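At your convenience, could you comment on the folded chain following this short note?
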Amino acid sequence: MTDIAENRAFTFNWFAPSRFALLLALLVVASFPQVISGAQTFIARDYGFFAYPLAYFQKQCFWHGQIPLWDPYNNCGIPFLAQWNTMPLYPPSLIYLLLPLTWSLSFFCLLHLWFGGVGMYFLARRWTANDFAAAFAGTAFSFSGMTLNLLMWPSHTATWSWMPWVVLAVETAWREGGRRMAIAAIAGAFQMLAGGPEIIFFTWLVLLALWIEQIATNEFPRRAFWRFPVIVALVAMMAAAQLLPFLDLTAHSQRQAGYADLRWSMPGHGWANFLVPMAFGGVRGEGIFFQNGQAWTSSYYLGIATLWLALLAIWKCRNRRVWLLTAVAMVGVICALGENTPIFPAVRKLVPQLSFITYPVKYLLLVTFVAPLLAAFSLARLREQKREIGIVGAVLLILMAAIIIWVSRSSFPNVNAHAALLNGFSRLAFLVLTGIVFLCLARDTDGRILKLAPLALICVAWLDVLSHEPVQNPTVQPGVYKPNLAREQLAMNPQPELGGPRAMVSPKAFLQFIQLALSSPEKNYLAKRLGYCADCNLLDGAPKVDGFFSLAPHENDSLISMIYGATNDFPRLDDFMGVSQITAPDEIYHWLPRTTFLPLVTAGQKPTVMSDWNALTLMKDPKFDGSKMVFLGQEDTPFVTITNGALAQVLSSKFGLQNVKIEVDAPVPSVVVVAQTYYHDWHSSVDGRDVPLLRANYAFQAVQVPQGRHEVVLRYIDQAFEVGVAISIIAWIVCLWAGLRRPHR
């Protein structure tokens, strides 16, 4: 009790929960005043090309009373809810569904930035019993290079913000039981519904390690062993409505076991960027700095103070929890190196499921989570480590000086040595300033000026991270997201529309989008938006051939990869897919009309059953004619009874977001072909009678109809979602009842 009292006295009673929450809110507002006010909005990278268009599509569905199960505008149709990172079932998504999107989506991200810091505060406060240490940990968690990088993904930011809350709630639950278990399950379910799979995996990895450590050391009764597995089961059940469709899509997607993408690993010299964040890299498009060979995160800088204190904790804190956090950090660093060491590739061979986590640098999220907690342990006992903190500071000073010399003499390509040197000297200044604050904090006497040292340390740490690179999240005027902006400026004829013709980004333009990186974020975005880059077409309601999603049905992904992996175009395949507009050869935002495109629904083709490889090969052939021939998968042989073509007519077709209605007149039994992505959740009927949905032309849909005039209906029915909803409703009712009921005395 004496140690706790002294630790609390050391905080000068400045950092009680309500005061810290207010302080952190002020820091968030000071960091992004133009976003909070609504004068500007985020735009860079995936925020503008992925997150905002998907939120816009989700909002359109919401106000039309539809659950966004399917996106008919991208990839010739693709599952939407099952992607998971689209957040259709995450309750706080109502923030941007109900409020003006240009402001509310950015506010949603910043609100979670604050929420995560408050969660880390309470976690560190429980573990250190020190309000000041907890306040520093909360600030360091919200303001680090990696955390600020996550702002471009609202789903990742939301998932990340729940990580400290889930660790705190679940650990408390397995130790205390009772209604705490319901609270932990609810917190875990909220994180699960937010939809950042890697961060969720890291959260439960940390909890598993913590649980095993506490079992081994008898920190809670063995009879309570069952609590953690029960919480895991409850979380899975409460999020089943999202998890089951995701697992179903994953099983039918391009990310099969063994799928691996080791790009963007942390290089061997990447440790230098923890100290000099702009070493070995340069400012790329939109004015954002990137390490050479890295494109997933613009930074993983922790801040000088956080790194300093974390290293001190690793060295001096004799605490099992510190040792566990250190082990987690080491695992994160080793895995982040990816292919640069033999360890991680070997682990992936042993555990193929890890291949679903692309880009090994993501494992540094473990370090970003652990470092503020390690720093809190050091800060809580800073006055006991006066000499050691000076030694760690001296080591950091020597390392930073060595990095500066290294950069000045290096011959790495694409490295802005001048900017890196300036960055190194500025970090040296923050190192000295941090050291002065540490010296004030470590003094035994408490003068009036010294009482400002805790607040000074938090402000210095915040300013260090905020200034460690050029802006990570540039902002622009909200007008760039105006709906139908491209339609109005391009005036395509005919216009791409749902159920009608599609636009197609040419393979050449697709590569240009990757390479184009204008220094002005606004010009960069507008140029690419007019070319329907990534998912920007959703803002205009314009269907197109490709899209930008994490998961796609396997056949669809293979087809798109074939199209955009070739140097030449396949005009007859484009005709079949209904392409009426294709990127012009001169500029990526100019379009050329095509007059030979087919309607999305055709009938009467001659069916031929063949292997997938042969179908893909023949569809590239200039002789391929989608109006006269259709290639069916070998698995459909039992359902096809016709061998010849016919003069069948499609009288009408009407496409909805999740259904298609077709009227067809066939003089003899015929095949009706729909140029929409084949996925097993689509079901077909003829005149109200269920019939098999055939896989046509490798990745599309077809239905056999009998002679005569018939109504063909295609409906998207996600049975995994329906089962998941039933499970989730039961689990939520149980947890809410358990959490709200009065405990027995």
About this structure: Residues 84-250+261-268+275-466 form one domain. The chain has three domains: 84-250+261-268+275-466, 480-593, 601-719. The chain has 27 helices and 20 strands.
